[in-house]
Structure formats: C-alpha cells, structure tokens
Amino acid sequence: MADADPGRLTALPPVPEVTVADAAELDRVLCAADRPFVVRGLATDWPLVQAGRRSAEAARAYLLDRHRDRPFTVSVGVPGSGGRLFYDDAMAMNFRMMEARLPEIFARIAEFAGRPDAPSIYLASIDMHQFFDGLHEANHIDLGERELLASIWIGTRTRIAAHNDVPHNLAVCAVGRRRFTLFPREQFCNLYLGPVDNTPAGRAVSMVDFHAPDFERHPRFADALETAQVADLAAGDAVFIPALWWHHVEGTEDFNVLVNYWWRDAPRWLGQPQEALNHAMMTIRDLPADQKAHWRAMFDHYVFANDDSVVAHIPKGGRGILDPMTPDLAGRIRAFLLRALSR
Fold first, then answer.
1. pTM of the model
2. In the chain, pLDDT over 70 holds for what percent of residues?
3. Which of 216, 243, 307, 326 lies in the 20 to 30 Å Cα band around 44?
C-alpha cells in the first residue's frame, strides 16, 4: 500500500500537455488519444475569455447580453461547506436546486464575492444553444463532424466529487481557474463510490473528501493517488478527458466559467450501459452464487467475447437480436424491454 500522506494531493504529477496548430491537428490528436492531455491557450481568442480576463463583472455582462429570458436551474450550497457540493450526514444533498433568472443569479454571486462564508452558487451543464443566443457561435472549438453536446458551467468556488462520464469530454476553462484531478477507468474500486441512484448529478461519485482524505476509512485511496494526474487550467486552457476516466473538478476563483463538449464514439441509439448495469443489479446480483456464475459466462459469451462462433450455427435471417446492431434493431429491443418492464 502506498504511503497515506494527505499532502501528496498537492504534489501529483501534471497531465501531459500537447500543442496543436489548427482544428485538423486537434482532430488527429483526439482520434489517437487514450489518455488525458492539456492544450494551453486553445480558447485564448474567445470573446468570453477576453471579457473574463478584464474582470468577473465583464464576463457576467458578456453572458447577460446573450442570455435568453427564461428560468435557469441553479444549485445553491449551504454556507460553510467550502464549496463542496456533496451529501450531508443523512445522505441527502447539501445543496438546494431552484430556478431563477440569470440576472438574479449573477446579482447573488456578486453580492457574496470575496466572502469566506459564501454559499456555493452553481449552474451545471447549461445547454449553450437553448439558453443563449450567439454564445456558442462566438465561443467554440472546431471539433469537426463529431455529434456534440455543448454545455456551459457557471459558478462560484466549487468542489465537485470525483465521477466519470460515458462520453469523451473536452473541457475549456473560459473564466477563472479550474483544477481537474484525474484517475484511469479501473480506479473505481479505489475511489469508494457512493450510491448509483442517489447521486448529486446522475453519476456515482467518490465519497473521499479530496481536501481532507481519511486514509483510515478509505485506505485504497492511497493506491488511486499512485495513478492520479492534475490539470490546473487558466482561462483559455483545455483538458481532454477520455470516456469513463474519473475526474474531481474544482472552480478556484470567486467566479468561474467552463465550456465543455461531450461526444461518444458509439451512436446514441445504442443506449446507456449504466441502464444495463442497473437492471443487472436488480435481476442478477442477488442470485445464488452458482446462478451468478452462469450469467457471468452468458454475458461473456454474448456481450464481451461476441465472436463469430456465437452465431455461426444459426442461419442468416434467423439470428434476431444476435444480428449486428442497427437503429431499427435497437428500437425493437428497446420496445421489447419496455413491454417486459411494464408487466
């Protein structure tokens, strides 16, 4: 077991940096990447970045000039939580979610600026196209033909527990500063994940407090740290986070803005693997050990190995859902599952 020294969180190795000359080179780097990397100054020329470098007030004014007059969903933390949006002692959330207009939200952020007891105010994963006019067009990275979800994240000083996402992620620090602490996919056992259904934002999160890790309660976290890397981003910098890599995210200034792009290598009609895992927890996890072993072998045969021998003995045209997946076949499977689950 690695030496359990809390100070090691401040001395983790940095995420490697790359330099790209243009969109074509960025595309080539992304296509070849299987590990995180940082691009310094990727979005330096964004008007939002330039506004933020003048002041937080200038950045807020820039966003207000382009926002649509509609309610925004905002999370408000309890004072004294140090910006950590997490669980309380009863495993409920330590923040409230509400709706408000953006001018009202920004007024509250300005009111609490510089106060150590300020509550966290956080707008998470706001769709840039639906909530702003022209913001994406003036502030975006050219990512070619990828089918993207472009989101903006706005808030005060915040700490978001380590979690992972199904898609790939290119995250751009637009205003303020961001710190990402990243771990490879296989480290989930060493991050002490919380509930998969009762979550702060839809994904299971690490129960470890990165600012005060308890190595007696979470001893394997020391092993996770052996694999960790840190990306400290200033305005205009970007980090690429491959699909399913774990990342702890901190906004470290009084006002921070992040723009990120999610995309999957697989088509959307394939659905979400997490849904299959949740269903397996209901149907397989509590079976007798010998039956669980059988279903493990069945999953290996039909899902994980899935070589030609699985269907070679079945005539073509009669293989049903064992045929290669298509949008039509995925739709038929989804309809079948909905009927089965509604009984």
1. 0.94
2. 97
3. 243
